[in-house]
């Protein structure tokens, strides 16, 4: 099986009895595990061993349906048996993780059976045994984009077929970083559940448009009506977004993962990647030589970015250092202050002929901030980033940062500056406070959503 193929044979379904046995056994094991994935209670080892035997037996029964994953599934059986034989200490599934290489076989409809002790982002923070049955989403136009200017060899877009409890949550990613291993390998893939992203988007946009009396443009209305179309749109968005990290004129460490930086810098990095995807989609849409399917989806990507950012991102999650929420607030406020988004007579409206230029202009502001950063001390870069955001989104009245450099502990370690950032440094506006109250039940209802359960 190679990337030159475009379709895969039909695999198993969520009702497959061997899959259900595996899923039940994995779920039973979770009850015995502690946060690091181990099972310290020796009195539970006998029952845990029986559940591991069931998992191994089920994997072997299912393996013929996944010949492309034969090496991984065999390694998984070995890792599970070794974990049990070793007394259920902290699990080490490095061998099976190294054998699982889904990025090498991006084939539309190709299924994978994935079983690891792992945490799930926006789900469980414990490395419990989770099992997920997935299939790849790889439309021909995406293959064309990836083979051209938007190469991203690590990117694997997927959809859910079934899952254990850790994914019955808001988690929409399957990352190797989450797996319990003895040492950190070089990560070679990252998978994103485009069906969950699309389903959340459709449910939230439908409710938000009704709540704000927003008249949707034709393309956005098509997204509401078609889950498959929306999934492909999100795959295109994610492809360009994901490859944008570590590309361009960037600060030395744009991810800021190992540095304790203010959360609003994460807001700018994620928003930068989205606005780059928006800008590139505008370019593709206008390219008469581009694939017609790519051009069509490029327009839809623009709607998806705007509506997901301003409706779902801005009001999802807690107000504790919510960097995606702040990114959504910034985009909304920017469009409003550029006079292309209007809240008049309790109705929301958008001047679509002018939106692209306004969004691209915000992206250019962030790009310029990044470009200037290599000539600035870290503290000066942080202050410039804060100034960019606070010029559009109003800070909390009690903010020390809002008072300017003279109020901040600039002579000490950078940690002192970070500690001065409030958990909710940029509170919701009155518009968003009202919208959040009305949309809260809808947002909460999207936990665990999949393409088959949308709308």
Plain-language structure description:
- The chain has 455 residues and is an alpha+beta fold.
- It has two domains: 17-188, Fructose-1,6-Bisphosphatase, Chain A, domain 1 (2-Layer Sandwich), CATH 3.30.540; 198-440, no CATH class.
- Helix content is 49%, strand content 9%.
- The protein is built from 15 helices and seven strands.
- The strands form two sheets. It has a five-stranded mixed beta sheet.
- Helix 1 (17-30) packs antiparallel against helix 2 (45-62) and helix 8 (227-244) packs across helix 9 (263-286).
- It starts with 16 loop residues before the first helix and ends in a 10-residue tail after the last helix.
The rounded Rg comes to 23 Å
Determine the number of helices (DSSP H or I, runs of at least 4 residues). 15
> Considering DSSP H and I runs of 4 or more, what fraction of the residues is helical?
40-55%
Strand content: 5-15%
Helix-and-strand structural type: alpha+beta
Strand order of the largest sheet: 1-2-3-5-4
Could you report the average pLDDT, rounded to the nearest whole number?
A: 94
Overall geometry comes to globular
Count of individual domains:
2
Q: For the record, give the distance between the C-alpha atoms at the N and C termini, rounded to a whole number.
A: 35 Å
Outline the low-pLDDT stretches. Answer: 1-9
Q: What is the H/E string?
A: HHHHEEHEEEHHHHHHEEHHHH
- The tally of strands reads 7
* Main β sheet profile: 5 strands, mixed
